[in-house]
Sequence to fold (83 residues):
Amino acid sequence: MSSDRLRPADRRILEQLRDHPPDYMALVANRLGMPTGYVERRWEVLVDVGYIEPVTGEAIYRLTEQGERYLETDPSATITADD
Fold:
């Protein structure tokens, strides 16, 4: 996957999962007031780069250690699949 600039919504998603782990994508979208389809697309990016991971077969996700490290970085940092 080519590098993709993390969007402000991605940070909000990661923070939600950090503060309320683990959770369903639709519930995260609802809590953040974001359209489910948009969150689903961003969710796929966050999984692809390793910032979130499924916990069960029911699509419950949590923040990974790599995602935690990202949240500790500069908000303008670029994400890549190799991070």
In short: Strands lie at 4-5, 23-24, 52-54, 60-63, 78-79. The first strand starts at residue 4 and ends at 5.
